[in-house]
Amino acid sequence: MNYNSATSENSVRFEKWLLFAVCILILMATKPSSAEEKNIVVLGDSLVAGYGLAPGEAFPEQLSRLLKDKGIEANIINAGVSGDTTAGGLARLDWSIQQGTDAVIIELGANDVLRGIAPTQTQNNLESIIQNLKKRNIKVLLAGMKSPPNMGQKYADEFNAIYPALAAKHDIHFYPFFLDGVVANSDLNQSDGIHPTAKGITLITRRFLPSAEKLIEELCKQ
After folding, report:
1. Which active-site residues does the annotation give?
2. Distances from the Cα of 203 to the Cαs of 4, 56, 81, 91, 190, in angstroms?
3. Reported pTM
4. Which of 46, 76, 133, 154 is the most exposed place for a label (fewest CB within 10 A)?
5. Distance (Å, rounded) from C-alpha 202 to C-alpha 207?
6. Is residue 100 a contact partner of residue 39, using CB atoms and an 8 Å limit?
């Protein structure tokens, strides 16, 4: 890749992040929460950003509707950026998680695996994110990710151990595997075999719902 091409790609990515930051600020400014409603940000990658899906079909939007159906008011903010690694999530943490955020659902790590990033680096990034949020008195729900078999047993063992270890160490809410019930199911994934369809996201959201309810229940006790 030549210099001009790399510069162009970096410029496009910066513009996307800038647009995303503006959207987050607008959402936070134009939709103030009531005394009962909580602001919950979903910090993630394409699995929550809505890659390949129609508007309203992404995980945060579907989660918001399921909660509302149960009479639970929560402002679920989509802070997913396609292609993001744990390092990317950490780098944009300060402007992705605005003042007034009550809790953050972390869904990151899938792109770390795809790029073969060392598990120790992934763990350090996730831990820095968690520590930052806890210092700000923001509750955390960590969604786990797992390595596919083709990465080798050693890599898988090290990577898969990251999430439960961090959840136990920092005493945070934990959902073991974000893609549970959907991974490797061709009926629930898009043609790339990686990103869930709207139907797949619906299954993920329904399985995730009890964990979200527990998180909100704890927030309401504060």
Report:
1. 46, 192, 195
2. 43, 15, 21, 30, 14
3. 0.84
4. 154
5. 9
6. yes
Backbone angles phi, psi at 97, to 5 degrees: -105, 95
Look up residue 196 and give its DSSP letter.
B
More confident of the two residues 36 and 140? 140
Residue 102, SS3 per DSSP: coil
Which pLDDT value is given to residue 13? 53
Domain extent at residue 207: 3-221
What is the band of 43 on the pLDDT scale with cuts at 50, 70, 90? very high
CA distance to 55, 165, 187, per residue, from 81 (Å): 15, 25, 25
- What CATH number does residue 213 fall under? 3.40.50.1110
Please state which of the ranges 13-17, 126-130, 191-195, 216-220 shows the lowest mean pLDDT: 13-17
Rounded-to-10 torsion of CA 183, 54, 62, 159: 30
The owner of tokens 């795809």 is 114
- Amino acid letter for position 208: F
Number of structural domains found in the chain: 1
**209, 212, 51, 80 alpha-carbon torsion, rounded to 10°:** 180
Distances (CA, A) of 112 to 100, 131, 182: 29, 20, 19
Q: Which two tokens stand for residue 79?
A: 């802070």
Q: What is the pLDDT of residue 148?
A: 94
